[in-house]
Amino acid sequence: MVVRISTGKSIHGVVRYNETKRNQSVAKLIGSQGFAKGVENLTASQLAKRFEMLTSLNRRTKTNAVHISLNFAPGEKLSEEKLNTISQSYLDKIGFGIQPYLIYQHQDAGHPHIHLITVNIDREGKRIETHNLGKIQSEQARKEIEREFGLVPAEKQQRIGPSLQELGKLIYGKETSKSSINTVLNQVWANYVFTSLGEYNAILSGFGVTAYRGEKDSQRYQRGGLVYHVLDEKGSRKGVPIKASSFHLNPTLKKLERKFSQDQAKKKELLREVKPRVSELLQKSKSLDLFIGD
Predict the structure, then answer these.
(1) Is there a single domain that holds both residue 81 and residue 192?
(2) Which end of the chain is more exposed for a tag (fewer CB within 10 A), N or C?
(3) In angstroms, how far is the first alpha carbon of the chain from the final one?
(4) Whose CA is closest to 226, among 207, 208, 200?
(5) What pLDDT shows up at residue 218?
(6) Do residue 16 and residue 103 come from a single domain?
(7) Is residue 163 part of a domain?
């Protein structure tokens, strides 16, 4: 079982993302806690308001939305009842067991997976700590659940989601939906190291996408805003700009700057690993063709 955890400032956005999938018939609301009967008939706004009853108790905590996906190996056939049991067990183990939550089963990928939505503000208005949640509580919970339910361990699962080669380049006018851009962003963030907006855009452009701050004298630029565009074949921005905060990943400028800082250390580590290998190959290879072949 592969677990992915993301936090954000918009519970509305998280609920809307999953409800949109449900309206497209590629997701199903299979479970909930802390909601009245008939939850499946509520609108996205009504669902979000239930969570806001808690977040309103702590206005200081801005990052309060918690979105978790539990990804299972292809071929694992799990009933809705089993998925609900796994979800409850997982949330109990990471300290969110008594929080209200929603469980969506998605059918838009080549493997079984569910999305869990909750908030990190409890009924007393106290914030539930999420720092290192993925590295500590979640890792322990994952391993315990894998053993308890006989699931394929994360270490033995094949890559989740499309590979970069399978992803290809978005073609303006043919494949420019928000979900397509979202797929590109998820894969780029998961597979690349970048330490500046220039490096980031150099990578994104290979997939027909760009991140744009606006002109330097624009309000968007001055306020640290960021939008995403699809590029045409000439590399020009096309289509309606999509706000960074509207994506599930929440790839805003502020979040990017944190990643730039984190990736500085990763880049140094990668260089230390690569340099000896390159030097070794240069010494062995007598020509550029042989070097590339090696």
Answers:
(1) no
(2) C
(3) 36
(4) 200
(5) 94
(6) yes
(7) no
Q: Residue 113: what residue type?
A: H
Q: Contact 253/225 with Cβ under 8 angstroms? A: yes
H or E element in which residue 167 lies: helix 164-167
Domain contains 258 = no
The Cα 164–Cα 206 span in angstroms is: 10
- Residue 110: partners with Cβ closer than 8 Å, 6 or more residues away: 74
Could you write out the DSSP letters of every residue in 12-51?
Answer: HHHHHHHHHHHHTTSEEEEEEES--TTGGGS-HHHHHHHH
Residue 109 has pLDDT above 70, yes or no: no
208 in Cβ contact with 170 (< 8 Å) = yes
Range of the domain at 191: 173-253
Q: How many CB atoms lie within 10 A of CB 168?
A: 13
pLDDT in tens, 188-232: 887 788 999 999 999 999 888 999 999 999 999 999 999 999 988
Kindly state whether residues 287 and 186 are assigned to the same domain: no
Per the listing, tokens 């606006």 go with 214
With contact defined as beta carbons under 8 Å apart, do 76 and 112 qualify?
yes
- For tokens 């700009």, the residue is 241
Q: CA 153 to CA 47: how far, in whole Å?
A: 33
Q: Report pLDDT digits (tens) over 75-93.
A: 888 999 999 999 999 999 9
Q: Residue 166: inside a domain, yes or no?
A: no
Same domain, 194 and 230: yes
Place of tokens 């079982």: 1
Count of C-beta atoms within a 10 Å radius of residue 220: 16
Contact 38, 1 (CB under 8 A): no
E strand segments, the chain? 2-8, 27-33, 65-71, 101-106, 113-119, 209-212, 227-231, 237-243
Position 139 in a domain: yes
Encoding tokens for residue 209? 């996408």
Regarding whether 217 and 74 lie in a shared domain, the answer is no
The helix/strand/coil state of 159 is coil
